[in-house]
Amino acid sequence: MKTFKKVIIPVTASALLLGACGNSATDSKEDTIISSKAGDVKVEDVMNKMGDEQVANTSFSILLNKLLADKYKDKIDTKDIDKEVEKEQKQYGGKDQFESMLKQQKMSLSDYKEQKKLQSYQKALLNDKVDISDKEIKESTKKGSHILIKVKENKDDKEGLSDKDAKAKAEKIQKQVSENPDKFGEIAKKESMDKSSAKKDGSLGYVIKGQMEKDFEKALFKLKEGDVSKVVKTDYGYHIIKADKENDFDKEKGKLKSQLIQQKVQKSPKLLTDAYKELLDEYKVDYKDRDIKKAIEDSILDPDKIKQQQQQQQQQQAMQQGGAGMTSGQ
């Protein structure tokens, strides 16, 4: 299934670089951050040392946090965030272990909660700016379950079966569930080699178009509620798929909308950059420095640059996965 770099910069400098209103666009570089008998440290010194793009990323991150918090603080329930964090703490073995993990990332629990808040604010911004109807959510999602019989990836794979045996077993199971669709969950729990979904009677929850392999997705979206597919082959093995009742759609559609928005933004970063630009205009943001303004416009607010960065990240991930495959194959 299918950020800004965190760089420490004095708050004084960030406030000088990006203000709510200002005078000339070049004076800020001459402002002093620290003075001493040996000489002063000016904004220009910091910028030259760090580079315009790093300063721009950090400054914009600080600014964005302030703007979003001001706009959405009354719309985000911090109690819900606290509950989410408590749930995550349990998953990681308790509060102490969770905080220890955060320390390794040089982050405190309060920092983490602030980060979660910012993510909620960003979701709220995109929910406001990207229009998705209930009809589109309904057409783009489907609730389903599956039973997977894996095919061996290689001769050392002890879990999967040969292609012939996997297909034969899947066809036998498909016949069982077709005759007894009400027992799909029971059979999935016993037979499915997808351990994660098997624990939940084979449930995958809501699947969004574009998340799964094409053949799997095509089969699922063709099914009516309660229907079971024929055996479907993917790179993972052989699947028997069931379309589940969507009686919780109204409860889940908010989450599904957020996921669809994220998917849209990945395909078209202009949705995100336009949302940022409208927010900056709304708050009458005035850049104190031309170089920083240019760096922000050429990186953070340039959809083509974001798309390019996404492609580079995907290439790096593909190379890493390929390297891991070569290593395991030796």
Automatic annotation (TrEMBL):
Coiled coil: none annotated. GO terms for molecular function: peptidyl-prolyl cis-trans isomerase activity. It comes from the Bacteria. Keywords: Isomerase, Rotamase, Signal. Residues 139-245 form the PpiC domain. Residues 308-321 have a biased composition (Low complexity). Transmembrane segments: none annotated. Pfam families: Rotamase. Its EC number is 5.2.1.8. This is peptidylprolyl isomerase. It comes from Staphylococcus cohnii subsp. cohnii.
